[in-house]
Design brief:
Length: 97
């Protein structure tokens, strides 16, 4: 019973084998409403913690910063429509024909 309370998220510990993991995922799929309810409850409990909220906000700040940086360095959008004609000026090397 204590293991259930410690692991409310329903994720199996890392030492489970492949067959146990498959059984857990199958159980989750068959009992989706119960699993979703437990996840909502787990999330609402976590949200109340100041420590958790600070970590969450820090991760959001980093992700937003990465996104803004990526958007800033991204290639500019290609111009749409017909390209303009570029007239070259006559130089000593290249006479206009």
């Amino acid at each position: 019973m204590e293991e259930e309370k410690e692991n409310m998220s329903g994720t199996p510990p890392k030492y489970y084998g492949e067959n146990m993991r498959k059984a857990i995922y199958k159980h989750r799929e068959n009992n989706r409403a119960d699993y979703n309810e437990r996840q909502r409850k787990y999330y609402t409990e976590k949200c109340k913690s100041d420590e958790w909220r600070e970590k969450f906000n820090e991760r959001c700040r980093e992700a937003n910063k990465k996104y803004r940086e990526k958007k800033r360095t991204e290639n500019p959008p290609r111009p749409r429509g017909r390209p303009r004609k570029i007239f070259m000026r006559e130089t000593a090397d290249m006479p206009i024909l």
